[in-house]
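Good day; I would like, with your permission, to put a structural problem before you. What I wish to show you is a protein chain and, alongside it, a tokenised description of its three-dimensional fold. I would ask you to consider whether the tokens describe a fold that such a sequence might reasonably adopt. You will find the record immediately after this paragraph:
***
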Amino acid sequence: MQHCASIPNRLSHQHFARSLLACAITCGLLIPSTLVLANDAQSTPAKDKIERMVITATQTQHSELMAPASVSVVTREELDELVIDDLADAVRYLQGVNISEGTPYGRNEISLRGLDSDYTLILINGRRINSREALTSSYGNDFDLSSIPMSAIERIEVVRGPMSSLYGSEALGGVVNVILRQPTPEWQTSVGVQYDTPTSGDGGDTTAYNLYTSGALIKDKLLANLIIDSSERDAWRSDLKPNVDALEDRKKISVLTNLQWLISDEQNLQLDLSYADDDRESDWNNWGTILTNYQAAERISSGLSHNGHWNWGDTRLRYYHEKVDVTDHSALISEIGYITQTNDTVDGQATVLVGNHMLTGGGEYRWTQLDNTRNISGDGQLDDTQSALYLQDEFSLGELNITLGGRVDHHDIYGTQFSPRAYLVYSLTSDWVIKGGGGKAFKAPNMSQSQPDYIIPACRGACNVIGNADLEAETSVNYELSTQYQTDTFGGTLTYFHNDVENKIITESWNRTPGAVLTYHNVNQAKINGWEANAWYDLTQDLSLNANYSKTNAEDKQSGDPFTLTPEESYSVQVKWLALEGLSTFVGYHYTGEQYLRTKVKSEGYGSVDLGAHYQITPMFTVKMGMTNLLDEERDQVATDLDYIQKSRSVYAGIRANF
């Protein structure tokens, strides 16, 4: 992606960026993907192979092939090549991932395997980020996704399928774990700029700047990095609906720094600090009346971690704090909301090898406080606490690798939940495995769902939704079976998954009778199952092909209604070509299948052809250029009538300098 230095005023943003775009076009570029790979000691292959390593599935290191879960990875190099606004853009084309529309004005949410974004756990270096108590998902809260500086990311690991046995509540759909770049012993700096503009409609220009610098403040003793991302996007109005914003106006900046004290060869101490400010404004259609919506989120977080690598095993102890201040001003509500959510977490973990058994155990304590005098009656405050203990055992019986684990969570309102998990990986050969497993997961109701004092305006201002103190925690029983094959030049996976959710929480149907009061209920059961397939092939040393496909069936078993905003199928195809030394290109197509936007309201599928190039002009300068939605494909009339509009053909270009 891009890296940036300074943040000039808005006029110079666009003047500079347009000059850059013209320059990039004359240079003639396009984009590919170089994988950062490592040897997997656990797979014991018959010949040397290079494989990507993952940690999220077990909190210990495995190759993708041998990991006891369905895992996909997005690398730093792949991020550098794309035009990305936030975390949703970064994982958009992975199998099993659906980027659903949180609002009609361009907010996106990450859904995994048919469950909406409330069931996707977002982590940074294995720790939670969360502002959903301050601004619920019904308000299109994607501020968590945009708070992470894209140039701070080393890689993204996406685990599809429930992971409550390690991570507790909210992980019914899966986990997205953002692994940040660590400080380096040698100084390195990069600055960059990127510009993106739609070719039709009104507005929509986006300019982004980034700065990354890392090195040793004290050689072999104190390392540090600093990452700054800033972007500004004008609201975009499509020619299909010229009186409303299909993409909201957005201005954001995020800053992250990490200090790492190398105490000795066995241990280090890390302090990380981050700040993010994200302001949004949009004009949207409320039953024929155009209203203005303004929301802003300011986030300050800090963390202190001790990591030990001893002769007998590894340990980690950390504390982290997150404070999110949200300003919510919608024309639907006369009172401006000033909301503060504070999250504090202490956790510890140890991994030790006992004979043939790798044991990982740990504990976690979290407390959350919410101040919201607009939506919470009484003193305007709510709080809750959760604690957990977990244990995992990894061992082998010949060619069979076995992972057993369980986690006990205690919530101060919903009591105790136990989430067990078992997973098997059997190596048919060094290239081919069959793996599968099952387990139980849970999700506790959030504050807005469970507290009768929490009142949310809904039905576009015509009704209110209040919490229900009688709700039960949602639980699921799930399993999957997969086979995966991987060689130096080609590979693929085929996976079947099934998830039965008990006590799924739903909101009562809209009631536009003035003053109507709705609440939440547990339904008997929901069923989600489907297939995922992925294949890749290096046709030559310079030409490769990658494709994936997902099929999902998700329905409420009580009513028989399918889930809304859940595509029945999706697929991606991408061809990458190293045209010249230093010049890599790609062309890809992504299709999102038909889905219900409302109950009984079905929309047809739609797609997008994207292409790009990435060219290293000199060791210092790298440029990129490309187009998204090359064929200017539009969504159908059903989606358009509900203000769900796909962004038109857009052109982007960027330049980065490395020092």
The longest strand covers residues 289-309. Residues 1-49 have pLDDT under 50 and may be disordered. Residues 196 and 343 are 35 Å apart (CA to CA).
